[in-house]
Design brief:
Number of domains: 4
Structural class: mainly beta
Number of helices: 0
Strand content: over 45%
Shape: elongated
Oligomer: single chain
Distance between the termini: 112 Å
Helix content: under 10%
Radius of gyration: 45 Å
CATH class of the largest domain: Mainly Beta
Number of strands: 38
């Protein structure tokens, strides 16, 4: 018999009061002699027992090509009948396959008829569907093989582990740990992202098994995963400017309980490194914070942080955050150059003095006067700015105020009138030969 001559029929027997759903397939074959269908069926089933997911054969060789009606009993449904199933091939066989929806247990066929005659015949043949033997996982891999707690993810893959609950024996930093169980997805994978509070160290998985079985399978070679200490994922400083003697706060994502190393530059100078400072407290989540006090010994200037790491790690994480420490003294102005701006125009000015830190400039008496592009030098001795006088700005001396975190100081800036157009005449003898306008 050739494979394409088989008729494969799947019947899904379910534990329901109603008749099961049946799918029947037939081949177009030469019509048999109807006389043979009037004889008692030579009904048999083989084999008598199968594992779930396997197939069995119903055979009625003297009813070749017939379509059957059958009756069967089970311990959970009682008497059931299926009409128009199965269809037999030209040898009188039908292959029936079970699947995950098939109820486990014994099905006893006790009646059979064919659709050409209405007569039922008593038969006696049974099939027992047993639970399939549990399989073991065949391999174990982890990719990647290391990561930072709170930062990274990995995927554990088990060969032959589709939708399987697997027990794993492992060590952590050389010490045996309790057996751990987890269920793998249909692809045989278990993805996981490390939390900030996962215990760090080297995990070595050396045994595994199907949770339904008692015997262990060696993981050969053993599989290692290294959980490295949590690395900061963000770095923020608030406020971004303080007066000497006032504190500022550093907040680091994934930094709760972490002692950090930091790198910074002072007033755009060379990069400096501080080891094992600061130590961050928890804010109730995985983030950490610390309040840093400044004092009289803290040099005024700009501290720009460029990198940070857990002091237990070797790799640096780039960061961008800065804090400006201003002198605890009021600002003073000694000069403004140039000291005037023309109505309807703009002028770049330089204000010199002392303690000119984090300065802002406003016009006090002239609403038409404003300032932009304000920047101060690292020594806080000068401020560069652009003075802007609108066309409606009042002409004359305007009072301006320069403000720093430590106080403010006032000074004067002159707003001059618009330029006056004039003409220059060029004569040749008593005749004007050209005029020039500035």
């Amino acid at each position: 018999m050739l494979p394409h001559q088989l008729i494969v029929v799947r019947a899904l027997f379910r534990n329901l009061k109603a008749a099961p759903i049946v799918l029947a397939l037939t081949l177009a074959l030469p019509a048999p002699s109807f006389a043979q269908y009037g004889a008692a069926p030579s009904f048999s089933v083989s084999p008598g027992a199968i594992a779930l997911g396997s197939c069995y054969t119903i055979s009625v060789p003297n009813w070749a090509g017939a379509q059957l009606n059958v009756g069967y009993t089970t311990s959970w449904t009682g008497q059931q009948f299926i009409y128009g199933w199965p269809s037999l091939n030209y040898l009188g066989n039908a292959v029936i396959c079970t699947d995950s929806l098939t109820h486990l247990g014994t099905y006893t066929y006790n009646y059979a008829a064919n659709t050409y005659y209405s007569q039922w015949w008593s038969v006696n043949a049974s099939i027992t569907v047993n639970n399939a033997s549990p399989q073991q996982p065949t391999s174990l891999t982890i990719n990647p093989t290391s990561g930072y707690a709170g930062n990274d993810c990995y995927t554990m893959t088990a060969g032959n582990g589709s939708s399987m609950t697997i027990d794993l024996n492992y060590t952590q930093n050389g010490a045996n740990q309790p057996t751990w169980s987890t269920t793998f997805n249909p692809s045989g994978q278990w993805p996981y992202c490390l939390s900030h509070y996962d215990q760090t160290g080297n995990y070595v998985f050396y045994q595994m098994k199907n949770h339904l079985l008692s015997n262990w399978v060696a993981v050969s070679p053993s599989v290692n995963y290294l959980v490295k200490p949590p690395q900061p994922t963000s770095f923020q400083i608030t406020p971004n400017g303080v007066i000497q003697g006032n504190p500022y706060r550093i907040t680091a994502g994934n930094g709760a309980g972490v002692t950090m190393d930091v790198q910074y530059s002072f007033n755009n100078g060379p990069v400096q490194t501080i080891f094992a400072w600061p130590t961050l407290a928890s804010d109730g989540s995985s983030s950490g914070y610390v309040d840093i006090a400044t004092g009289a010994s803290t040099a005024p200037g700009k501290y720009a942080f460029t990198a940070a790491r857990n002091t237990l790690n070797t790799q640096w994480a780039p960061v961008t955050a800065s804090i400006l420490v201003c002198p605890n003294a009021a600002p003073a102005i000694s000069s403004i150059v140039p000291s005037a701006v023309q109505q309807g125009g703009s002028s770049s000015i330089v204000i010199t003095g002392t303690n000119l830190c984090a300065a802002s400039i406003q016009s006090v008496s002239n609403s038409g006067l404003s300032f932009s592009n304000v920047a101060w030098n690292a020594a806080f001795t000068s401020v560069n700015a652009t003075a802007n006088a609108s066309g409606s700005a009042a002409v004359g001396q305007a009072q301006i105020r320069l403000t720093t975190p430590a106080g403010n100081v006032t000074s004067q800036l002159l707003v001059t009138g618009p330029a006056v157009l004039t003409k220059e005449y060029i004569y040749l003898g008593d005749r004007v030969i050209a005029t020039v306008s500035p």
